[in-house]
Amino acid sequence: MNHKIIAIDQSTSATKAMLFNEKCELLRRVNISHQQYYPKVGWVEHDPEEIYQNVLRSITELIKQEKEICNYSLAITNQRETVVVWNKKTGRPIYNAIVWQCLRGTSICKELKEKGYDKLVQYKSGLLLDPYFSASGVKWILDNVENAREMSDKGELLLGTIDSWLIWKLTEGREHVTDYTNASRTLLFNIHTLKWDDDLLELFTIPRNMMPRVCSCDSIFGETTIGNLFNVPILIAGVLGDSHGALTGQMCFEAGLGKVTYGTGSSVMLNIGEKFITAPRGVVTSIGFSALDKIFYAFEGNVHCTGATINWLVEGLRLIDSPAEIEEFASMMEDTAGVYLVPAFAGLGAPWWQPKAKAVILGMTLGTGKAQILRAALESIAYQIKDLVDMMSQKAGISLQELRVDGGPTKNQFLMQFQADMLQATISRSNIEEASALGAVIMNGLARKVWNNFQEVANLCAAKKYIYPHMDKARARSFHNGWCCLLYTSDAADEL
To answer: Residue 457: left (phi > 0), alpha (psi -120 to 50), or beta?
Structure first.
């Protein structure tokens, strides 16, 4: 009997249920959005019960469309740092999930920084002491929800990222578990010992009895009937955070392989191998993925404005009518004639981390026209990615083997060619759909012994389009030097 894999991608805005076969082919999907709550300025919450019900609904709808009799298993990828605290007796959350975007933990992190704990936290967790990660949200709940401290002291409360919450609900409370990647995004997990860290738990005043068991991504996490959808329980196998899922889905199984997801901003992850390395400023070290009894670490950083820059040209300046037009204009000339755009519309992200920086266009003359500005905008995306990738690879002491890319802007051939030229490395663009979900599917297959090694998985990879550097190295260096000179005139260069 055929086996199909249900993959849940529970993101910040929606739950997607997808069906894959064991050739890693996406057959169909169902998408259900959930409500975002903003009770105060800077606060962001989700209703964990709504998310769980949407998981049940989306899977039910997905299976209703299935006409073939087959066996199933379930894989999960999820928004990572969002955290839930619930009562294990009632099965109900004691407060809404605190989302990774929420800033309510700012004062908690600020106080710990002022006491000098930031270096300890970064060494043990690989992360920056920031409300972006889960720990300050948990502490806030325990400190501010009525009777929360008393219940936690009695061992009545559990906590977890969204994967933990879903697995606990799907197994009817039998399994309180997470994977290494999600654990590594909490500020509570020691990525050297691969255990919850007593010092970090004490720092955030979180009892150890609340913490889930931690497993490799390619583990069996439990069994579920999906709310009695199935008469016989199916396996929950393969769990990892969404960015880690994309790293896996892009088959970045070796050190030196990296992925960039080009979206509104860009998420950059580089596999640095099986040895922990402290990340450079503005970048974090996480567990990239764990499988086949191995741990692979990764550097991760985020660029604020990539696709957002193109949208600004369309909707803000109205220089073009659609994003597709920008490539034609950018290809009209050999260069920008010295025009550079710094797209600091929301400050500069990694590796510069200048939140107060403002966007500028420099180098214009009376001869500057629309085409130069449009090309400068595309080049700025490639420069930002290069700066981040270069910092990561230099710190790790490895050469970038290949950059694997996904996202809407990758359709722009000029951008991809310029990116390859700036990096002097091969760009691999595939037709992979839903890279994060595919990563969970891969872990599912490894857990069930469908595949025995990474090469067997890689052989299933969709056809790729390879883009090789064409620009002379000296010319590429002169382009990038102009960008660097521009940034080095500001405070952004102080730490580089």
So the answer is: alpha
Residue-wise pLDDT tens digits, 379-397: 999 999 999 999 898 888 8
Q: What does the CA dihedral 108, 109, 112, 114 come to, rounded to 10 degrees?
A: -110
H/E stretch holding 118 reads: helix 118-125
Element (H, E) at 16: strand 14-21
What is the dihedral sign for C-alpha 437, 440, 446, 450? Answer: negative
pLDDT of 463: 65
Q: Which residues, in sequence order, are CB contacts of 316 under 8 Å at separation 6+?
A: none
CA distances in angstroms from 53 to 10, 209, 364, 391, listed in the order given: 12, 27, 55, 42
The count of C-alpha atoms lying within 13 angstroms of the C-alpha of 368, restricted to the half-sphere facing its C-beta, is 17
Report the alpha-carbon distance of residue 290 to residue 181 in Å, rounded. Answer: 8
The Cα angle at residue 353 between residues 349 and 358, in degrees rounded to 5: 75
Q: Beta strands 340-342 and 360-362: pairing type?
A: antiparallel
The DSSP string of 360-377 is EEES--TT--HHHHHHHH
Strand, coil or helix: 404: strand
How far is residue 448's CA from residue 235's CA, in Å, rounded to a whole number?
9
Domains and CATH numbers, the chain: 3-242 (3.30.420.40), 251-431+463-496 (3.30.420.40)
SS3 readout for 55-113: HHHHHHHHHHCCCCCCEEEEEEEECCCCEEEEECCCCCECCCEECCCCCCCHHHHHHHH
What token pair was written down for 127?
């992360």
Token duo for residue 431:
């037709």
Cβ contacts of 343 within 8 Å, gap of 6 or more = 304, 305, 306, 308, 309, 312, 359, 377, 380, 381, 384
Bridge partners for 372 per DSSP: none
Single pTM value for the model: 0.86
SS3 percent helix, strand, coil of the chain, rounded to 5, is 35, 25, 40
User: Identity (one letter) of the amino acid at 365?
Assistant: T
For 179, residues 6+ apart whose C-beta sits below 8 A from its C-beta are 163, 214, 215, 216, 217, 219, 221, 239, 240, 241, 290
Count CB atoms within 10 A of the CB of residue 192: 12
Q: pLDDT (tens digit, 9 = 90+) per residue, 50-66? A: 999 999 999 999 999 88
